[in-house]
Amino acid sequence: MAELRHAKKHQEFYDACTRLTERSKYAELILEIDGLMGQNAALEAEVEQWKTWGIIEIAVRNLNVASYMEEWESRAIKAEAEIERLKAPVRSVDAMRMLQESRIRGLQTILTEWLAARASAPATGAEQKERV
Question: How far apart are CA 106 and CA 92, in angstroms?
Answer without folding.
Answer: 21
